[in-house]
Specification:
The protein is α/β, with parallel strands linked by helices and 247 residues long. It is built from six helices and five strands, in the order E-H-H-E-H-E-H-E-H-E-H. It has a five-stranded parallel beta sheet, with helices on both faces. Helix 3 runs parallel beside helix 4. The protein is globular, with a radius of gyration of 18 Å.
């Protein structure tokens, strides 16, 4: 239901002589990220990339995307550690370039600390980090601390690789720079429906089931190998439908 209307469901009743019973449990996937994970500029909520991938793979997707945030806040890491999860995906970093800027060294240490806190509750849960996807205006432009998005991406990827080298055998990296092209961005920051479908195709959680069908074929470059989950082929969003971009 649209959260902006603040609905308060009071009852749920079957119609036509039907019965109510819980759906069978599914493996739970925690997807932490920014507005891209939340699903901005997808034309429908079910076309956001975590919804596409989770539905195709038969997962119970918990979308923890926070527009304008997701800079590796340690409180979020502690929250993730406290939740039940079969798989976890972390996709943050683009908001570390602006608004509340980070340096490359700061993002490196933040990523290491974030992973360490998540691992207090999930020491062996398969965990995938997706580094920032393409953002043309930020790739080579220094922020207030002198860091470009390309530099921040490199720092985060180094933090993940160093954590793997330190012994985290259940951690994987999906480099984000080549996942999308400029024409996949609805507002130069957020993906359109085609871009969300490409992210869904690339970002299957390591170890997740193969899914029911593969409509969209995507090529991932995750450290554990290519991922080709099912995803629905969506329409492109209508002109002017994208929300305000993050800065």
């Amino acid at each position: 239901m649209p959260e902006t209307l603040r609905p308060s469901p009071r009852a749920l009743r079957p119609v036509g002589g039907g019965t109510l019973r819980p759906a069978p449990p599914k493996p739970r996937w925690l997807a932490y990220g920014d507005s891209i994970t939340e699903g901005w500029t997808a034309s429908r909520p079910h076309l956001a990339w975590p919804a596409l991938a989770g539905r195709a793979l038969g997962l119970d997707t918990v979308n923890l995307g926070y527009a304008g945030a997701a800079r590796g806040e340690l409180a979020s890491a502690q929250h993730l550690a406290s939740l039940e999860a079969s798989f976890i995906t972390l996709a943050f970093g683009t908001n570390c370039w602006s608004r509340t800027p980070s340096s490359a060294s700061h993002l490196y240490e933040t990523t290491r600390a974030f992973l360490a806190l998540v691992r207090t509750g999930h020491p062996r849960t398969p965990l995938l980090i997706v580094s920032p996807v393409l953002r043309p205006d930020a790739e080579s432009t220094p922020n207030a601390l002198g860091a470009t998005l390309a530099g921040l991406r490199t720092a985060q990827e180094e933090a993940v690789r160093d954590t793997i080298t330190s012994g985290d055998a259940h951690l994987s990296l999906l480099p984000g720079a080549s996942l999308l092209k400029p024409h996949h961005l609805a507002d130069t920051v957020h993906p359109d429906d085609e871009g969300h479908a490409l992210l869904a195709a690339a970002g299957r959680p390591p170890g997740a089931p193969e899914g029911r069908r593969a409509v969209v074929q995507g090529r991932g470059n995750c450290a554990t190998g290519p991922h080709r989950p099912a995803a629905e082929s969506p329409p492109r969003p209508a002109a002017g439908s994208a929300p305000d971009r993050e800065r």
